[in-house]
Amino acid sequence: MTVTPQAAPPPQAAPYPPQAPAHDSWPGLLRAEWTKIRSVRSTIWSLLAFVVVAVGFSALLATVLSNDWNSPSGGVGARVQLHTDPTSTIYGAGFSLGQLALCVLGVLVMTSEYTTGAIRSSLLAVPRRLPMLAAKGAVLAVLDLIASAVTVFAVFFVFTSIISSHISITLGTPGVLRGTIGGILYLTVIGLFAMAIGGLIRHTAGAVSTVIGIVFVAPILLQLIPGTIANHIYGYWPSVAGQLAGQTTEQPGNVLSPWEGLGVFCLWTVAALVACGAVLAHRDA
Amino acid sequence: MTGPPGLIEARELTKRFGDKIAVDHLTFTVAPGRVTGFLGPNGAGKSTTMRLICGLDRPSAGTATIGGLAYRELRRPLRTVGALLEAKAVHPGRSARNHLLVLAQTQGLPASRVDEVLDLVGLRDVAGKRTGGFSLGMGQRLGIAAAMLGDPRVLLLDEPGNGLDPEGIRWVRTFMRQLAAEGRTVFVSSHLMSEMSVLADHLVVIGRGRLIADCPTSEFLQRSSERSVLVRAPDTARLRELVTAGGGTVRDDDGPDRAGGNGAAPALVVTGMDAPRIGELAASERLVLHELTPRLPSLEEAFMELTAGSVEFGQASQQVGSAS
Questions:
Q1: Strands B267-271 and B249-252, how do they pair?
Q2: What is the CA radius of gyration of chain A?
Q3: In this structure, is residue A2 part of a structural domain?
Q4: Regarding beta strands B185-190 and B154-158, do their DSSP bridges make them parallel or antiparallel, or are they unpaired?
Q5: Is residue B291 less than 8 Å (CB to CB) from chain A?
Q6: What is the C-alpha separation between B119 and B132, in angstroms, rounded?
Q7: Chain B partners of A108 at a C-beta cutoff of 8 Å?
Q8: Which range has the worst mean pLDDT, A198-202, B127-131, B168-172?
Q9: Nearest chain B Cα to A122, which residue?
């Protein structure tokens, strides 16, 4: 494909427009970040993967539970947990895997700029790097919040309708609405957490691996270590603490209550974002 | 503190990468209203200097300012400075229009401005296509469109001719001259010295991160090398005797038609004697001359002479013996 230069008269570059007011334009920064995130395909693919995995796995689990409801052997634990902590059961299956897609989206928001070189254009336009990071985080958070809310409620209604002949769980069931909102908030925050890791590491594969290590692998390893110290490290671990927010009620053995857990996870995320901001501000682009 | 609008100033600008100095105490200014060429061999530090001016890299020491302000202090900087840097700076999955729209939105510019600059560089037809499929030349055009987006008074262009076909290069050259004529600051780097000699009014020349020259292009050519005179005469033997006796130095021209093909007389190159004196000497002996041309060294020659020892490559080859 060739483009013939629109050669002949180099155009009259009429002064355009009069010099702008001298302040950062937050609406402009937010609009620009929204244009960035909506104009690449990875965004829609990540969100689609999130919805499909979350709803699909939840529906699968609900169907299996429903079919085996009266079998003495299968799914006893899950059946018990449906009574004691319904939201963890409903959301556990779909979102423990589905959140990976939100993590990838969060990572890509940062790393795609670095791996493609687009960061240079971005920083030429917005040389003050912290406002850019803030705008990026705000746009990602809103997008994740909406996607999570839609998906969480979809999962809830799909799951409860499949299982409804055996057990009735509604948003009015004590603690269920709180656990549902907690789950939505957890999924939103993990996107920001992944974004911060992306900004710190700057390479997609490295950042995604790190996030998987923190969110999925480390908790399993920590659980293998006996003792109260390890138990507390486990309890305060970012993803472990954050996922408490999805519980219907505080469960025995928890180090933290659901809201405390979400608070701890938010602190981890703020720390990661601060580190990301410091690196962004000081490292060469 | 603000300085004259549009003036680029580097003061003692220094950048180290580990123990390697890429930019070494550079001090120069780039004035509005003319094309200033930024010349140096590969690895001389041109791109790093441009990145320092644009705030992408932090200087290890010294300052770079535009109109008295560091780049990071500029609000909506694309309205003041347009930069086309050497490295790729576009997400390949994003369309050209969306790429420019993002930049326009950060500056509070209307979306209609995006179409204006797309027209400017002739990319309107492919505006909706993802830039990953663009050729090198189209990528350069997109970069130029981005640089012109905010109608800036200062333009920094790092090797703008890269990947452009001859027509595109001519277009960019005309465009830069026009921008300078409008009173803008145009700072353009190149390693193509022939390009600079026809394009730049003023030169900033660096080698190995150090300033070698900061002067008008014509002065750079004149002061940098001995001047010579090309003389074409049917009787070169007599001419050679005369000039040598008069204190000049003579050598055969090493140009393509030195032997005097196509019926032309053979040519000599005289140094150490100017053209009027050679003409007078020849006239006094009734010697026929067919040509008498004072020659300026080409920019390449001048450049090689001034940067001798500043070339990364030369340095590397000297170190081959000691390298592992």
A1: antiparallel
A2: 23
A3: no
A4: parallel
A5: no
A6: 20
A7: none
A8: B168-172
A9: B103
State how far residue B193 is from chain A, nearest Cα, in angstroms. Answer: 23
Q: Is residue A77 one of the residues assigned to a domain?
A: yes
Query: Would the CB atoms of B105 and A31 count as touching at under 8 Å?
Result: yes
**Residue of A39, A119, A124, A132 to mutate for B, most B C-beta atoms under 10 A:** A124
Least confident among A102-116, B81-95, B207-221: B207-221
* Residue type for position B4: P
Q: Smallest Cβ distance to B56: which of A6, A7, A284?
A: A284
Q: What percent of chain B has pLDDT over 90?
A: 53
Structural fold of domain B8-223: Rossmann fold (3.40.50)
**Residues in B touching A28 (Cβ below 8 Å):** 105-108
Structure tokens at B31: 């004035």
Residues A111 and A204: beta-carbon distance below 8 Å = yes
- Report if residue A278 sits inside a domain: yes
Neighboring chain B residues of A119 at a CB cutoff of 8 Å: 89
Cβ-defined contact of B72 to A128 (cutoff 8 Å): yes
Nearest-Cα distance to chain A for B114, in Å, is 12
Are the beta carbons of B137 and A3 separated by less than 8 Å?
yes
* pLDDT, tens only, A51-93: 999 999 999 999 998 888 887 776 677 788 888 899 999 998 8
Of the pLDDT bands very low, low, confident and very high (cuts 50, 70, 90), residue A251 is: confident
Alpha-carbon A29 to chain mean position: 22
Residue B322 in this model has a pLDDT that exceeds 50 = no
Say yes or no: B169 contacts chain A, CB-CB below 8 A. no
Sign of the torsion angle spanned by Cα atoms A255, A259, A265, A268: negative
Answer whether A116 sits within 8 Å of B87, measured CB to CB. no
Q: What is the ipTM score, two decimals?
A: 0.87
pLDDT at A9: 44
- Distance between CA atoms of residues A208 and A101, nearest Å: 10
- Tell me the residue range of the domain where A144 lies: 39-282
Q: What would you report as the CA-atom Rg of chain B, rounded to the nearest whole angstrom?
A: 24
- With cut-offs at 50, 70 and 90, classify the pLDDT of residue B25: very high
Contact call for residues B314 and B41 (beta carbons, < 8 A) = no
**Interface membership of A232 toward B (CB under 8 Å):** no
User: Shortest Cα distance from B90 to chain A (angstroms)?
Assistant: 4
Structural domain contains residue A245: yes
- pLDDT at residue B2, as a whole number: 54
Opening angle at CA A151, ends A267 and A31, nearest 5: 65
Instruction: Provide, as residue numbers in chain B, all residues whose Cβ is less than 8 Å from the Cβ of A4.
Output: 122
Instruction: Count structural domains, chain A.
Output: 1
As beta bridge partners, residue B291 has B232
Q: Which of A4, A25, A40 sits opposite B94 (nearest CB)?
A: A40
Q: Are A114 and A108 spatial neighbours (Cβ–Cβ below 8 Å)?
A: no
Overall size of chain A counted in residues: 285
Q: Which tokens go with A174?
A: 């004590």
